[in-house]
Amino acid sequence: MKKGYKNILIKEFALYLKLERALSDNSIESYCSDISKLSRFLEEIKKENVDEIKNLCSIDRETLLSFINSENDRGISKRSQARIVSSLRTFYSYLEMEGKVDKSVAELLELPKLPARLPVVLSVEEIEVILGVIDLSLPEGHRDKAIVELLYSCGLRVSELVNLKISDIFFEEEFIRVIGKGDKQRLIPIGTPAVDAIKLYLKQRLHINPITKDSNILFLSRRGRRMNREMVFLIVKREAEKAGITKSISPHTFRHSFATHLVENGADLRVVQQMLGHESILTTEIYTHVDSIKWRETILKSHPLRK
Q1: pTM for the model
Q2: Which of 80, 103, 177, 253 is close enough to 76 for a disulfide, judged by CB 3.0 to 4.6 Å?
Q3: What pLDDT does 4 receive?
Q4: 297 Cα distance to chain centroid
Q5: Is residue 29 part of a domain?
Q6: Do 129 and 263 lie in a common domain?
Q7: pLDDT value, residue 190
Q8: pLDDT at 188
Q9: Block mean pLDDT (10 aa), the chain, length 307
């Protein structure tokens, strides 16, 4: 998380988001960046018209709408527009809670309507093909296969994967301990194929000399350092291309596939929510829509009038 915010209100807001809302550093950065843009916008107003001097606490709704319109005029996406409104709502709700404003000026701001964006999902067959093309004769082959198996078996975020420790894996009990967003811990069952892949990788890992601080980290680079997200992304892209997969693939695709396949096979949505580490079940419900679309397509293809 960036530490260089000049405005004391934004610094305090960032601390609130981290300690009380338990948001990730990336989310905090986005929220505070939007409020910093508003602060700069108010500075511009101050330069142009002395009679319209505003600060973050005394701004009125009209000026707030002018800021939003100025951002929209830059051609930002609907999702960026929605994020800015969300940032403003959260910030002014925080100021109201702290007694710095009598009432949130952003309370009635409307979120733009966003088109439904369903995640890219791999079929079980496509995942099997990707696993099948990984070259296990290479020094990193078993590591890469264990990565893909674990992404799909447990639905991990890539940040959770690269920070996973050997001591977080409980082989006999067949579950792993994951530290997710906001340092929240959750336990996830792990399938036999992933367990077997990890055990084979750990045998090869013995030939790597990890640096001291990463000695307990599961997945290491050739130099014995913790892997970063970009490295995992490149591994996944490379193996998908070798498998002839034309879909846009990232490590997160396996997380989407994991959740979608669970829902398709009748898993309780609350259980899927817990396994994914979603704070709200509304986030998890996207996978019911993916399942509904697949079901609808199957029905339409089977209908005699569609043949």
Answers
A1: 0.64
A2: 80
A3: 53
A4: 28
A5: yes
A6: yes
A7: 95
A8: 95
A9: 67 88 85 93 74 74 91 86 92 92 88 72 95 96 98 94 96 93 89 96 95 97 94 95 93 93 90 89 79 50 50
Opening angle at CA 253, ends 156 and 193, nearest 5: 55
Contact 96, 225 (CB under 8 A): no
Residue 146, pLDDT score: 98
Supply the pLDDT for residue 130: 97
Q: Residue 144 and residue 99: Cα distance in Å, rounded?
A: 52
φ, ψ for residue 189, nearest 5 deg: -65, 150
The residues annotated with a catalytic role in the active site are 157, 181, 252, 255, 278, 287
Listed residue (82, 77, 87) closest to 37, CA to CA: 87
Is 205 found in the same domain as 63? Answer: no
| One-letter amino acid of 164 | L
**Both tokens assigned to 264:** 């398709």
- Statement to judge: residues 89 and 179 lie in one domain: no
The single-letter code of the amino acid at 270 is: R
Q: Which two tokens stand for residue 68?
A: 């939003």
Q: How far apart are CA 115 and CA 94, in angstroms?
A: 29
Q: What is the pLDDT of residue 280?
A: 82
| 171 and 264 housed in the same domain | yes
Task: Determine the structural domain holding residue 271 and report its residue range.
Answer: 124-300
Q: What pLDDT does residue 204 have?
A: 94
Boundary residue ending a domain (78, 97, 116): 97
DSSP sequence for 81-134:
HHHHHHHHHHHHHHHHHTTSSSS-TTTTPPPPP----PPP---HHHHHHHHHHS
Q: DSSP secondary-structure letter at 260?
A: H
Q: What CA–CA distance (Å, rounded) separates 241 from 238? A: 5
Tell me the residue ranges of DSSP E strands in the chain: 169-170, 175-179, 185-189
What whole-number distance in Å separates Cα of residue 155 and Cα of residue 159? 12
Residue with the two structure tokens 């009380």 = 20
Tokens of 99: 């007694």
Type and span of the H or E element at 11:
helix 8-19
